[in-house]
Design the sequence.
């Protein structure tokens, strides 16, 4: 806030003398109330929104009933002289004024001078009657004048809009006492013959003629709607521009321009926060409601307001209110949500998603609530001082209205806006949850595991970083506070200039016309008589000066006329609809007291056409929102029901005997089922309380009654060994996966056919406890007997495209992590690695067969045609929201056709996703493209090619194609890598290029890319078998101006950040460490692409270090130094693990070099 640094320190947020982090006294007193209100709002957001919306409707109805938006009521076909005289200006000219026009101040008593001739000057304004309009203004001589009057035609004046306006002006002068009769006479003026042709309905009756009718005599339609108010406000605004000073017009233009810039800045700021429309629109609605409440309270307190004041003051009110506080609260709420997901939970928070949002709101209000209220209070206090200081003109009303608007805006910020923000957060959480679950299901993961992973992702940080990624995007500070300061400062500067230039403004005949000033910015300035009737005054001035006759001239505001039929113009307003709910006898009864009037007023609001449209739009949005939330709830309920249903054997339905039928209708065996259930329950109770060992028959009965979890381990083991429980169904039968793994280990140990080899498995050191098998079952592995721990290290940090990463590597090969870390250090010394993604597309190559070569060739031609490409693409894309077919490549071998589908797969590796799309596309090709004789030999015809070395992957790419490059300074090559540039270049050519070519290698033009690829794959949950094609790599080294330029090109890195092994928590934690866990919230595929670039950069570091070790001759000695404590001997077994050592914190995880092997 402007001037916040001037606030006393004790008022600043979170300040305490003894503990600066401790909230201050005022903070501690106010924040609990703010938290209570905000928690209520975010706990019941729909109720809060409905309540405030209904309350706003009631206020709007009351505002309509006050007639605020209506012009002054007039009686039809009558002229109100007092109304026409409002705003008129009186000027004096004579010897007393030195023959200069002297303007009488508004509100001054009417000065009478017997020597002065009292004259009235009236201007008639005929709307839309110019040269370009079909309506012709009446000729001056045809204007009906009162009989016996001395009305004189004067030259009319032009205004600032005359060049673009189509109005016609006529000016008349007359004695002031004849003015009332003149108004009555010119109430209706016949239209000129050049006017619009009159309609003839063919009857004998004389058709009604259009006339120029005085608008002030028009009967108000009485609707009081927003459209009528807008039209009246626009007309008043045009009049203001016509009569305003140029500087005032500039000020108003700046005000409106600043208002529109404020709106644009709001939407841009919210867009940077990740919300393109809803949050900015909600902020506008909240401020509009606050303005409505403030306006109604202001009027009820007796402060005069009018539509002209609003039309001029609203732009500056918008700039004054500003929108930085909703943005500040939004950033705080979402930052707290990010911190909660990162594990920095607030006291009382938990991992439940709805409570996380509520806790985020509580945390945000605690952190920023007092600061927001403090800013509101200071701004309101300044406005109250302005309202109480007696500032001239409309600024007093403006300050009063602005203060109340800010007061209600503060309340709505912590209620209405917080409710919308809560719903927006919940919708985004549901969308992320559903998208991730569906993506996992598309990738072949079971629904149960997909739901568990999605729930876990709700509580994880995902790819959110310290920069507070909001709605999937990175938040930045808003520019609104800076813009607001500039606009308010400019506003004050222009007004100071306005005041300073008042004495120097030019005027006609040196008459000081006090029509400008600070008050003219926010209220209608007094009418400038010289702008309205300047030519007429000049004529009167010349006449009076020539005759030496003092005159007093009253200049009336221009009287507007419109061309209309009198029956339409004077039509009586339509009677309002009768919304009364009860007869008159009950209107003043208890119901009226308890809210009947409120309900009746609310129903009346639907008569307004604009409000009724908004109500319809609000209802439609409500239906859409509730439908979406209902579907989300239904998805969650279905998932819960699916997971809560007891698992049964697959063939259970086959064992159920058919129900007996009579005349085709199923009989209800209620009695039989009841007796059987009671018997089973009694049996279970008896067996459960039975002491001693159960017999096999009893165990089998319990198993048949689906009560296997009640059996002990020995009984379950006996049933499993005898084949009563299939080995693959232990998890479903026992309903405890860890216990099922334990039983399976015992079964394998006691299987007679293998007991000689597997008898020690049951008591082996293979761990099986404390593992989340829910993520394994149905997703990663079957017949589980435990899990295999692997050493996990980190190499680095390594700077990749300006961002530093630690590379997780799971390996049992010593020196691999240390060597890669040395390469990372060398790369960092040269500025880091640069990676480029050149392609992204997973492939699947099915094989289809035909009886003849002719049909196979026809199929290939159709697949290569534009029609075939379109049909196959549409069919493929219909199977998934993420898989999108990029290209088809077909080839023919005899009567077999091989088709290579290349598609995007989002953040999943995508093999299962593609297989489903391929089956769909081939089905459409067979059924709809005329290839019914086609036989699908295999969905995978090895034309992909998956998990096998193939030239097509090396040439066309598969998965992510990445190139990584780094430039290593010459001195770093010598000091860190212990080699030189020329030696490395020669070694790369002779080993990686020529040597690999001599061996006939395909994609193996590297030193050991597979080492790094496999280690990172194991650490991040990738498919280890796909290191075959993922390790395709060519390493290139050049001497670039004495420095080493090294690059690796890897055309087929196959990785994913969802599905497969990434659903396991340890592997997901490593993805989290790299910032690529799960699906990217806004750009599908971005996380997996980033992981591929990390893999390529890691390979670059590994290649650099190993080639350097080979060039320097350090490889063998380094392995011996790191992996052996002594020279190798003929020991029959591995040396025992070393005992515990005193912990020593390393100075840096980045290992500088391999240990010195030269001793």
Sequence:
């Amino acid at each position: 806030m402007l001037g916040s640094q001037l606030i006393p320190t004790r008022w600043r947020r979170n300040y305490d003398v003894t503990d600066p982090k401790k909230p201050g006294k005022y903070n501690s007193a106010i924040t609990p109330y703010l938290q209570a209100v905000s928690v209520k709002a975010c706990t019941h957001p729909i109720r809060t929104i409905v309540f405030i919306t209904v309350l706003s409707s009631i206020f709007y109805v009351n505002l309509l009933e006050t007639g605020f938006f209506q012009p002054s009521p007039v009686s039809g076909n009558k002229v109100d002289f007092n109304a026409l005289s409002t705003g008129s200006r009186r000027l004096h000219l004579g010897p007393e004024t030195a023959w200069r026009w002297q303007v009488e101040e508004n509100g001054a008593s009417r000065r009478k001078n017997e020597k002065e001739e009292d004259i009235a000057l009236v201007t008639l304004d005929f709307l839309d009657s110019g040269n370009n309009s079909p309506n012709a203004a009446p000729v001056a001589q045809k204007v009906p004048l009162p009989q016996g009057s001395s009305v004189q035609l004067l030259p009319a004046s032009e205004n600032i809009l005359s060049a673009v306006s189509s109005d016609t002006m006529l000016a008349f002068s007359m004695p002031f006492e004849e003015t009332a009769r003149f108004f009555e006479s010119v109430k209706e003026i016949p239209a000129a013959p050049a006017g619009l042709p009159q309609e003839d309905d063919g009857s004998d009756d004389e058709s009604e003629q259009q006339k120029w009718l005085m608008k002030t005599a028009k009967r108000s339609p009485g609707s009081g709607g927003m459209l009528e108010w807008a039209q009246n406000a626009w007309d008043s605004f045009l009049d203001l521009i016509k009569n305003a000073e140029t500087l005032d017009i500039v000020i108003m233009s700046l005000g409106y321009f600043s208002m529109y810039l404020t709106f644009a800045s709001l939407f841009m700021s919210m867009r940077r926060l990740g919300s393109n429309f809803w949050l900015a629109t909600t902020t506008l609605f909240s401020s509009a409601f606050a303005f409505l409440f403030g306006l109604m309270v202001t009027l009820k307190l007796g402060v005069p307001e009018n539509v002209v004041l609003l039309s001029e003051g609203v732009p500056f009110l918008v700039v004054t209110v500003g929108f930085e506080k909703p943005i500040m609260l939004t950033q705080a709420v979402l930052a707290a949500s990010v911190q909660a997901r990162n594990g920095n939970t607030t006291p009382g928070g938990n991992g439940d998603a709805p409570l996380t949002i509520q806790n985020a709101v509580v945390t945000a209000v605690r952190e920023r609530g007092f600061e927001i209220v403090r800013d509101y209070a200071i701004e309101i206090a300044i406005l109250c001082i302005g309202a109480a200081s007696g500032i001239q003109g409309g600024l007093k009303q403006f300050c009063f209205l602005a203060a109340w608007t800010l007061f209600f805006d503060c309340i709505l910020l912590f209620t209405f806006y917080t409710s919308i923000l809560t719903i927006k957060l919940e919708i985004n959480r549901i969308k992320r949850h559903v998208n991730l679950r569906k993506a996992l299901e598309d990738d072949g993961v079971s629904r149960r595991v997909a739901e568990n992973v999605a729930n876990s992702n709700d509580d994880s940080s995902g790819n959110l970083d310290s920069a507070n990624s909001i709605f999937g995007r990175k938040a930045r500070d808003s520019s609104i506070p800076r813009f607001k300061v500039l606009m308010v400062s400019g506003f004050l500067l222009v007004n100071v200039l306005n005041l300073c230039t008042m004495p120097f403004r030019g005027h006609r005949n040196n008459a000081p016309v006090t029509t400008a000033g600070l008050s003219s910015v926010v209220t209608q300035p007094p009418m400038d008589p010289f702008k309205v009737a300047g030519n007429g005054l000049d004529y009167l001035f010349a006449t009076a000066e020539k005759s030496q006759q003092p005159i007093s001239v009253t200049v009336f505001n221009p009287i507007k006329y419109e061309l209309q039929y009198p029956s339409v113009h004077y039509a009586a307003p339509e009677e309002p609809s009768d919304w009364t709910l009860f007869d008159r006898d009950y209107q003043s009864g208890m119901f009226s007291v308890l809210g009947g009037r409120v309900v009746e007023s609310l129903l009346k609001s639907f008569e307004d056409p604009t409000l009724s449209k908004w109500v319809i739009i609000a209802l439609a949005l409500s239906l859409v929102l509730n439908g979406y939330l209902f579907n989300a709830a239904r998805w969650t309920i279905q998932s819960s029901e699916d997971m809560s249903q007891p698992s049964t054997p697959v063939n259970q339905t086959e064992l159920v005997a058919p129900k007996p039928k009579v005349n085709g209708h199923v009989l209800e065996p209620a009695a039989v089922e009841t007796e059987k259930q009671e018997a089973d329950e009694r049996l279970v109770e008896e067996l459960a309380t039975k002491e001693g060992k159960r017999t096999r028959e009893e165990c089998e009965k319990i198993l048949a009654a689906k009560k296997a979890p009640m059996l002990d381990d020995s009984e379950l083991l006996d049933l499993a060994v005898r084949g009563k429980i299939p080995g693959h169904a232990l998890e479903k039968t026992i309903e405890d996966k860890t216990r099922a793994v334990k039983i399976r280990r015992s079964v394998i140990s006691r299987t007679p056919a293998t007991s000689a080899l597997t008898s020690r498995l049951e008591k082996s050191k293979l761990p099986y406890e404390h593992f989340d098998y829910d993520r394994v079952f149905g997703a990663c592995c079957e017949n589980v007997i435990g899990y295999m721990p692997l050493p996990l290290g980190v190499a680095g940090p390594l700077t990749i495209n300006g961002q530093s990463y630690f590379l997780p590597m799971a390996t049992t090969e010593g020196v691999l992590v240390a060597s890669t870390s040395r390469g990372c250090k060398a790369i960092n010394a040269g500025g880091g690695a640069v990676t480029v993604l050149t392609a992204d597309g997973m492939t699947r190559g099915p094989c289809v067969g035909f009886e003849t070569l002719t049909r196979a060739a026809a199929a290939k031609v159709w697949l290569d045609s534009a029609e075939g490409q379109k049909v196959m693409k549409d069919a493929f894309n219909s199977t998934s929201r993420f898989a999108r077919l990029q290209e088809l490549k077909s080839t023919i071998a005899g009567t077999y056709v091989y088709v290579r589908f290349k598609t995007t797969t989002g953040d999943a590796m995508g093999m299962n996703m593609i297989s489903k799309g391929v089956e769909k596309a081939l089905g459409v090709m067979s059924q709809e493209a005329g290839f019914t004789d086609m036989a699908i030999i295999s969905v995978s015809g090895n034309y992909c090619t998956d998990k096998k070395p193939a030239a097509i992957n090396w040439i066309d790419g598969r998965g992510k194609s990445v190139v990584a490059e780094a430039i290593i300074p010459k001195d770093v090559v010598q000091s860190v890598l212990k080699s030189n540039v020329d030696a490395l270049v020669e070694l790369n050519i002779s080993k990686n290029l020529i040597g690999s070519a001599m061996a006939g290698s395909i994609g193996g033009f590297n030193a050991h890319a597979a080492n790094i690829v496999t280690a990172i794959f194991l650490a991040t949950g990738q498919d280890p078998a796909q290191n075959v094609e993922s390790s395709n790599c060519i390493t290139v080294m050049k001497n670039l101006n004495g420095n080493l330029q090294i690059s690796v090109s890897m055309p087929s890195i196959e990785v994913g950040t969802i599905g497969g092994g990434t659903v396991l928590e340890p592997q997901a934690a490593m993805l989290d460490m790299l910032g690529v866990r799960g699906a990217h919230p806004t750009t599908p595929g971005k996380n997996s692409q980033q992981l591929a670039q990390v893999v390529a950069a890691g390979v670059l570091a590994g290649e650099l270090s190993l080639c350097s070790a080979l060039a320097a001759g350090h490889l063998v000695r380094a392995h011996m130094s790191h992996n052996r404590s002594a020279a190798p001997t003929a020991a029959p077994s591995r040396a025992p693990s070393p005992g515990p050592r005193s912990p020593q914190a390393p100075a840096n995880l980045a290992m500088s070099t391999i240990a010195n092997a030269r001793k």
About this structure: The chain has a mean pLDDT of 75.
